[in-house]
Design brief:
alpha+beta, 18 helices, elongated, six-stranded antiparallel beta sheet
Length: 590
Amino acid sequence: MLRELRIENFAIIEHLELTLEPGLTVFTGETGAGKSILLDALATVLGGPADVTLIRSGAERALIEATFEVVDSVREPLMALLEAEDLLDEDRERVVLARELRQGGRSVARVNGRSVSLGLLREIGRLLVDIHGQSEHLSLLDVRQHLALLDRYAGNGPWVEAYRQAYREWRHLERELQRLHEAERDAAQRVDLLTFQIREIEAAALQPGEEEDLRQERNRLANAENLASQVQQALALLDEGAGETPALTDLLGQVAQALHVIARLDPSQQGLSEQAESVLASVEEMARDLRRYQEQIEYNPRRLEKVEERLDLIQRLKRKYGGSIEAILAYAEKARQELDTITHATERIAELEAQREALQHQLRERGLALSVRRQQAAAGLSRAVEAELTDLSMQGARFEVAITQVEDPQGLPLEDGRAVRFDERGLDQVEFLIAPNPGEGLKPLVKIASGGETSRLMLALKRVLTQADVIPTLIFDEIDQGIGGRVGSVVGEKLWLLARQHQVLCVTHLPQLAAYGDYHYGVRKQVQGGRTTTRVQALEGEPRILELAQMLGGQSTAHLNAARETLERAQQRARALAVSPAGGGVGGEG
């Protein structure tokens, strides 16, 4: 819900900060004082059109910032949207929307301090606020919302979820069938290709790690003569010596013998003797290893040729199937699986088509059961809305929930031979229709005229759909247009009831309606230093009485007494509604 509103340099508002509470908040003031400017500012920060002519004269920019408390009814979709757009703030209990208008026509939208597109700002705003009188922010004028509202009104949650579960299974099965049919169409050519590829890889009999071993062997074979020469030279120095120089093993043996004698005479040097013995043993082991290696060195051009051919084969397969032997083997396994799928596609298709028939039967049963519940709820919803409209001085207005099923040859086959369009929401298309005046034909809700009549209609719908409508903040403008004091009291009562479950803001000229406000703000226009500015003042106690008296026609004693009586009557009625079971009687059919 809206908790803080800050406006700078917007129209005749130089600087304004409002802290708002739950419940019903009313704004009153003379025509032209700036009440509509408040709503224009709110519409702008929610993604409405940016009119740079509203930047206060002499200012470079206008700024509107709205801070919302995140309530449970919209937490899940709001958090999901913010997370998807990387807009989550450390404080998950609030979200801040901002709009900056700049001279030259530019505007900047921000959510939690980060720049966003206007479309995204509008999408987030629609989750938080409905402005009645500004159709671009009115969720009830979005036909896509009507089905969900009807389902929530009817308490269809478990039935909708049961249907959706079957629909998700059907969609998964349809995707697999489509893949199998596509594979079947290309089967002959694909089978030949896969068979060739698998045989080519299998014929190579590749082994993981083989390539590195072959490279090392090729290196030995290609350098066999040089390796043999170097080994021979090393062995000669170790075992035979060079010219008059004794062999290294002989010299080390003499050193070891001398140190052995030293250690016998001086035990403190035993470590040196052992070290010499260890070095002699290591050199002798080195000589043995060299002799074994010498036996492996082979000058074999035929073997070298075979190794080169094997490495060339591996390179060709790597270019075709992957960058390593492991990747080539993985490709072969995947090809075997695909070949197996194609080979058994006909049997699998027959199996899946049998499952599809069973799922379509399930979808048909659950979808039709959901349609019956919707038809029953639609009748109740229509009666409830028409009753509310009668209370709001719209006698004779008709409201209807149109539920239709669209025939589609590719749709879900029904038992009567028809096939109807269906999606994850069911078999039905739902739209709210209205005839505001007797004798008029029913028209889609989106085509009704704007103004007070629209606001009253929306109030009626909101009252009936209180439990179903999750949008936390509702704003009503011009709702009192064309009605008198008696109906104004009825409207005030209904707004007060609506505000028990939503935050409601209302601009009004009727004192009978304003008296129901939990909070009352007076909007004033004043001139300072030759500039006109708007001020908003919280009204309590005597200032509120004075405002209501002024709305009743003046501030005489009679007007003041009438204002006190109007306020007291509204407050008594609100207290009665708060404790009366009838006070909570809004929402669905039980």
